[in-house]
Amino acid sequence: MNGNDSIFFFLYFAVLFLLSPFLGIYISDVLKGEVSKRSTFLSKFESFLYKISGIKEDQNSDWKGYLFDIGIFTILGLGIVVLGLHFQDILPGNPEGKSGVAWDLAWNTSVSFVTNTNWQAYSGEVSLSYISQMLLLGVQNFVSAGVGLAILAAMARGITSKPGESSGFGNFYVDLTRSILYILLPISILAAFVLVSQGVVMDFSKYVDSIGIEGLSVKIPLGPAASQIAIKQLGTNGGGFFGVNSTHPFENPTVFSSWIQCILITEPGVGYFLKTE
């Protein structure tokens, strides 16, 4: 290990340990509803989302109701992703004219992304359109991680409730909304800008035709990669924008981008929201 490696690891662990308690307390406050009381703009937007979707913010579910909501949401998301992948050839955002994904691969991919495991049996730049990457898989990167945070919040409420107390497990849709709106989305936006500054691609252009070192014609893949990579790492998802994930130079071009992605994927402080006051 040389000096640069030592600096890399020292800064990584230093930032990790410094961020953990602050981020953990913040996550705890988000899922308790404390942050929404302090953030005027986001709280108004949050209330607007509840209004248009018919969600009752003060509704408190028992474990059966909470589990039922998770199941309905998961099944709906699964169906949308399967159909979207299979019929991507007739959807917009497909400048390379990618054909629809076969039913079995669409099902395999959808199940893995909806469950936050993100098994990748395909090469993104070869098989998927931009719309599939962003609005299907990218969205599931957010909501599957949000579902995980919501489940942990519900478990924490159940564990910390007093014997004989019937306070409920909370509202799944409120927990999901707050997890995305106050935690996953802001951090991902900031991380995406940092990744773009390091050279990670983020555009909607067609692939570039070029000549390789062996004199053969090659296509250089582009696309809206930075936004998906940020949430992929933050939500501990797999399935990168490119088939080889973060070994691709357009997904991870510098030492600093690698360091940022290592920080994101560790998710410091998640366990701290179990703390109760």
Task: For the structure shown, list the relevant keywords.
277 residues, mainly alpha, two-stranded antiparallel sheet, 2 strands, 3% strand, globular, disordered C terminus
Task: Write a compact overview of the structure shown.
With 277 residues, the chain is an all-alpha fold. The chain is built from ten helices and two strands; from the N terminus they run ααααααααββαα.
Q: Average pLDDT across residues? A: 87
Indicate the overall shape.
globular
Number of domains: 1
| Alpha plus pi helix count | 10
Output the strand order for the largest sheet: 1-2
How would you sum up the major sheet? 2 strands, antiparallel
Number of strands: 2
Give me the Rg, rounded.
20 Å
Give the DSSP E fraction (strand runs of 2 or more residues): under 5%
Order of helices and strands: HHHHHHHHEEHH
The share of residues in helices is 55-70%
Distance between the termini: 44 Å
Query: Uncertain segments of ≥5 residues (pLDDT<50)?
Result: 268-277
Secondary structure class reads: mainly alpha
Question: Can you describe this structure?
Answer:
There is one protein chain. The protein has 277 residues and is an all-alpha fold. It has one domain (3-274). Helices cover 61% and strands 3% of the residues. The chain has helices at 3-32, 34-38, 40-53, 63-86, 103-114, 124-127, 130-160, 172-197, 225-234, 255-266, and strands at residues 208-211, 217-220. It has a two-stranded antiparallel sheet. α4 runs antiparallel to α5 (103-114) and α9 crosses α10. The longest helix has 31 residues, at 130-160. The protein is globular and about 75 Å long. It starts with a helix and ends in an 11-residue tail after the last helix. Mean pLDDT is 87; it is low at 268-277.
